Fold this sequence. Notes:
By secondary structure, the protein is mainly beta. 0% of the residues lie in helices and 37% in strands.
Amino acid sequence: xxxxxxxxxxxxxxxxxxxxxxxxxxxxxxxxxxxxxxxxxxxxxxxxxxxxxxxxxxxxxxxxxxx
Length: 67
């Protein structure tokens, strides 16, 4: 996963429309804290949001890689 990748949250759909995926763009890879036994969080700008949300990396699926 890298900055610019288009992602979706595994098993989630857009909150206003059950047949569309909520899409987001990776904007920040955050700090690598896996060594401390904590889950790495990735900064995502979602299509239905107005701020960066920090999501656990294992909840995200890359659907299109950025260049």
